[in-house]
Task: structure prediction
Amino acid sequence: MGFFFPHGFEYPPDFHIPPLTGTELVRIGPLSYTNSHFTMLLVATFLVVLAWLGTRQKREVPSGIQNLVEMLVQGLDDFVVSVGGAGARRYLPLFGTLFLFIVTSNWLSVTPFFGQVELLRAPTSDYHVNFGMAVIAFVAYQTDGFRKFGLPYLSRWFNFSGFKEGVFVGVIMVLVGLIELFSELFRMLTLTLRLWGNVLGGEIMLVVMSGLLLLPGLAIPFAGFEVFIGLIQGLVFGLLVLMYFVLALEGHGEEHGEEASHTEASDYRDGSHAQHPAVQGA
Amino acid sequence: MEFAGLAAGIAVGFGVLGPGIGVGIATAAANEAIGRNPDAAGAIRANLILGAALAEGLGILSFVLGILLWTRIG
Result:
């Protein structure tokens, strides 16, 4: 009986709000491994096992787990192409991994025992995990920008071209560039906090609703809402990372007149020779 | 801190005004677009969900500030 009620059986229930970040389980020297690390390991194992089971026998007509995995990959591929054009397939691994990891972690936050037992904690409800993913995405798209433009990539932030038209305009453009630089750095923070706020806030809301609604089971619609929000937030994180890639590669100021979401296939440096839409079927 | 509780309440209270209005405007625009072109309802709905999630992200930022102040009450 004590197994199902980790904090003891209380009626009316008390609010046991999960801590804001992970609690330490193991300490090796200066490094401490928390329950977020442990659950991250579980999520990674689950995804690897899912992928392995889905690709063991590659049947021509898929069925079972292979069907599920193919549906996932096809759905993600369609989404990436619809957002970034055919050349954006280069970013499908990063987008797909972020999406699957974040959605699995978010759905774990609604699962029983996660957040209430000390050993288990949804990884995305710990801001350290989210910050790590945001830093990875930031470094990735800045690297791609430098790879495409070289050192002139920095000219979008340290913008001395306004001095041609007068000192006053030049100073203003320099300040605008610095504000743009701050906005770029701020993206890491908003990516982290958006996901963390949604997941931890959802857990807090579930705990408080379960405490206020005295009959068990009345909080299930809120759990359903949290499942929906978890899916959407995973999609938003991945989509924003994709958009940051597209914006970093589009060039400074040239293409503001065109649609911002469809860049030329030649912008992507993997050499994919997708046909220009105007040439197809000619 | 003595005013941490009050600050948390005011922060979250004002913080969700903007996103609330923003999501309302987005939904209104999306519904009008669906009314004009019912065949594109799927694509418009996808864009609506995306825009609502981004606008709500800013409300969540103020909620995070509320959590931060709530841990410092007293």
